[in-house]
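Lab manual, section 2.4: Encoding a predicted structure.

Procedure: take the sequence of the chain (119 residues), apply the prediction step described in section 2.3, and record the output as structure tokens. A sample record is shown.
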Amino acid sequence: MGIDVLNFKIAGYRYAQQYRSPSDIVQIGESLILKCNQKNIYDDHSVEIYNCRMERLGYVPKFYSHKIFKMVMNSKEYHACVASYRDLDYPLINVSLKINSESTSSDGDSLVNNLLTGS
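Recorded output:
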């Protein structure tokens, strides 16, 4: 058993934080909190991302949201943190999501492998 890692950019950051610079609200390595939001009108499997002060940073990209939503709802072990960010004209935050490899599908494939292959 090991750890699977998925890296992605936070979706909707510019809108959630109204153009605040990422360096003002997060630090590299800072732990992030994932919260499911079934009431989102655009994605009923949306997963919100918060910093340690419970400021909403944005969302898991829709491409990954359904499976990560299920992972969070099923209390799978994970650790999400700020991998990097960019403060320039188009600010963004990159997330590193580490998932315990025991978080497997019924056929034994890892969650990250299923996310990447669309299984």
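Check your result against the sample. The chain has one domain: 3-117.
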